[in-house]
Design brief:
Helix content is 30%, strand content 14%. By secondary structure, the protein is α+β, with helices and mostly antiparallel strands.
Length: 161
Amino acid sequence: MIRYTLICDDAHEFESWFSTSASFEDQARRGLVTCPFCGSAKVERAIMAPNVARTDLGPRAPEPMAEAAPSAPAPPPSPAPMALMGKQEIAFREMVASLHAHIRENAEHVGERFAEEALKIHHGETEARAIYGEATPDDARMLHEEGVEFLPLPRLPSSGN
């Protein structure tokens, strides 16, 4: 088996295993090798350094394991590497952020009183205006049953996610 570092035409790097070099060439020519980030079939091998064992240093003895205290728990395993965001996810996040900004600029925030205010507007008890706020699933069900038109907004993920 051969492990290749591959790169697509959008510069996404990823790895894949092939039985032979000819197997990679054949699969790539047929469009069967695709980028896991963007789906592009325009994939080629990236420059990679080979793993070559040095023999000039002689055989190495295994390194002794450090003794851990009997009551110390083992550290949790490192999380597996994951792809971050592709172009579509970045564009979607920007659209959601733009929608939130538009609503903040053009509507009144009523907080947890959203269902109450929406009903008052619907029944003509208060002036019609654009509002936004929070509602429980029960509030949303009640508003729907009353015929109040509203839309849930997707939450903005934090910038670290």
